[in-house]
Amino acid sequence: MANEHPDISPNQTGSGADLIERTPSAYDYPLLIKHLLHTPLAHAPEQEIVYRDLKRYDYRTLRRRIGQLASGLEDLGVKPGDTVAVLDWDSHRYLECYFAVPMMGAVLQTVNVRLSPDQILYTINHAESDVLLVHTDFLSVLEEIEHRFESVKKIVLLADGDDRLETSLEIATEYEKMVESSSAEYEFPDFDENTRATTFHTTGTTGNPKGVYFSHRQLVLHTIATLAALGTSAEQGRFHRADVYMPMTPMFHVHAWGMPYIATVMGVKQVYPGRYEPGMLLDLIEKEKVSFSHCVPTVLHMLLSGAAEGDADLSGWKVVIGGSPLPKGMARIALEQGIDIFTGYGMSETCPILTLAQLTPEMLECDLDEQLEIRTRTGRPIPLVDLRVVDDEMHDVPHDGDTTGEVVVRSPWLTQGYLKEPEKSEELWEGGYLHTEDIGYIDPEGYLQVTDRIKDVIKTGGEWISSQEIEDILSQHEGVSEVAIIGVEDEKWGERPLALIAPNSDHVDEITEDDIKAHVKERADSGAISKFAVPERVQFVEEIDKTSVGKIDKKTLREKYAK
What we know:
Layout (H helix, E strand, L loop, with lengths): L11 E2 L6 E2 L16 H6 L4 E4 L3 E4 H17 L7 E5 L4 H12 L3 E4 L6 H11 L3 E5 L3 H7 L8 E5 L14 E2 H6 L15 E6 L9 E5 H16 L12 E2 L13 H8 L2 E4 L5 H10 L4 E4 L1 H13 L8 E4 L6 H9 L3 E7 L6 E4 L11 H8 L4 E2 L4 E5 L14 E6 L11 H7 L5 E9 L5 E6 L4 E3 L2 E3 L1 H9 L4 E11 L3 E10 L9 H13 L11 E4 L13 H8 L2
Helix pairs in contact: 2-3, 7-8, 9-10, 11-12
């Protein structure tokens, strides 16, 4: 690119009298993922990284293995610009890939292993992946689709211990063998910080999943900003160097909310649980003294149920809930068990974290009900996030805790668009802000509260009713284990709410349709919610359908129950 200011030398920046001369040999320091490793190696080189009950090593070993992985991938032909796809559970291997692949200048594709085989095939072909790293659990899936691969050249097997299986796939090598036989002396180069580092595909969409992508600069800035937000809280919701971290959001999904990068920068003990099994998760929390995690409500529900059946002590555990609204009923149970629970907000397109519902010291003096209101809010923006709630003409609505609009956002780590879909990318960024398609309001204290997805709002009786608000009310009924509200067609009112209820096991024979309606009607009679929010029908189900990342699947529920 030609110098647009011919009077300014390449070694000067600024304008006019503010020109600053730069030494020709000065290091520009691009924001690259490799630089995130400096701090833990200086502060905590002997800290542990644990994988289930199968492996543990220190940060020095992590850095050595990252170099060995890069060398091994280079020997397989991986070069800058190539894409390496990973199909694995949460593991030390995944953490190594989070660093080694983008540090080479290649692109890491995190494949959602819970998609259907055809959707997995679509994402691999859409990302033009060159090398696949696949856990033995997913060999059968690849065997089904490998004859339709369009770009894959090599497959590397990921195995736990001796669980290697016979397969018809042509396997280039096994991960551990490749790492241990490769040189750790890989020289990771400098390059443009805007180089693509990762890509993955969204879930819960109509049609094929959409690809999103993020650069080194975006991931580094997201890491620093979220680290600042979590580390500067006065008391509640702090993530600090004495914590023990374990993700319970899949590492294939939005970089596990970016937390493995944050945990690595901090040099904390990290625990990776593999496949999510309630017994293993609870065992690791106890044995490894896990103190900080994040997950969707369904995973927390699973663990609270497991803890109630045993004698697990979850007190002192800090948990950020995202992906779906945190029901007050679930939050109350968690707080009563001593869990420091609060909400975070973001989406696949935002890398993801935008807000956190942390409490001030004054708020911690409030009673339980008042704290529940704050902890279950969507939260306040973290540093560098410009978040607005706007009307149809992109004008800000009042921050009065009542007036709703669409949540739009800017920050330096949002995806620049959808992979190979320019028209949808333009729609995403219409008006210069990323459109979340979430409806919400901002209260006088600056907390965002998302009230619904645009597509999930129920239009009834001339009003817009929040399905999430009804779900939150019903989650506090003692007989309700899980709840989902969807809109169904109604000739008179346009739409009416249908309540899908999974009862608590000890209330299955007691709870009735009239109980559910009465519970919502009580709130409607008090004026807290519209009379149109009282469900027209109630249907009891054994379980609520979920997406591949554990969110309530409203699309599937509408297809199954709307008629």
